[in-house]
Amino acid sequence: MKIKQTYKTAVITATFLAIWMISGNMVKEDVSPKSESNLDTLASVTVLKSKAVQREPFIKASGFTEADKFVQVRAEVGGRVISLPVKQGDFVQKGDLLCQLYIAGREAFPKIVAPFSGYLETVNVDSGDYLNLGGICASLIDPDPMLLIADIAEKEIAQVQLGSNTTAKLISGREISGKVSFIATSADKNTRTFRVEISVANLDRSIRDGVSAEIFIQGKTVPAHKISPAILSLSDQGKLGIRVVNNKNEVEFQAIKILEDTTEGLWISGLPLEARIITLGQEYVFQGQTVKVKEISIPDA
Predict the structure, then answer these.
(1) Are 195 and 149 in contact (CB under 8 A)?
(2) What residue numbers bound the domain in which 172 lies?
């Protein structure tokens, strides 16, 4: 997977929270006004003057494959099976005969035909069996396209769009790709998640129904900044963020959201399009403090 949020982000965040809750030694934001500072000299910090770039973060979800069409073909009248020209695994065209019945006393020979083209997953009767009204003649599956099914959390569903590019890694290790074809408008009442379907071409029938998958859906484009995870901190309220300086060289705490964790650094949102991010010295300054600033250039994104 080219772009993927790793477990490292979760570990970093959990570590910050654990230290904050248990030891109290995490550096917390002092919300006291600048006027309360008794410092006679200004502290020095190194600041990265960062400009946001447009990123398309990936929304990660666990899911599974599901055939686009799968039906149990049932009898509309009861009768004895007198013809069964198909067998399990056969490919049939729409309208092909699956079962023919004989209705005693009426001399009628109703036919049960394929409602669409696909493969016979099961054949449920043999010649001579009596098939009741509503009885199953066969199960028919159309595996092309194959669907990927993902349940997306309510806090992330707004980032998913119809047509969004999606990649997935099947439990076998195989990687496949497709596009979002359906987004539920109503959440599951138990899980508060929304069903999302991704359509994947499967002409060769190599993707099977019901296989577990790790799914990555490309979200909406958002402005993002790249930072080192080493500069993350927590506010007094336990919010994850970073320290920045404003145009008056005053320290501010800015809450952020981690979009992606890459080998080059963290991509985050929540900052303005241009931000002066403290990269060195953030441990020794507090909210509202005026500082000496040494600016460094923006690294390549």
Answers:
(1) yes
(2) 59-67+144-218
More confident of the two residues 15 and 81: 81
State if pTM tops 0.90.
no
pLDDT above 70 for 218: yes
Bridge-based pairing of strands 43-51 and 291-296 is parallel
What residues form DSSP beta bridges with 138? 73, 123
Q: Which are the contacts of 155, defined by CB distance < 8 A and separation ≥ 6?
A: none
Q: What is the dihedral of CA 12, 17, 22, 26, to 10 degrees?
A: 80
Answer with the one of 111, 142, 173 that is the final residue of a domain: 142
Which of 212, 68, 87 minimizes the C-alpha distance to 150? 212
> What's the total number of domains in the chain?
3
Domain boundary among 218, 240, 269: 218
pLDDT at residue 30 in the model: 47
**207 and 154 Cβ atoms separated by less than 8 Å:** no
The CATH number for 42's domain is 2.40.420.20
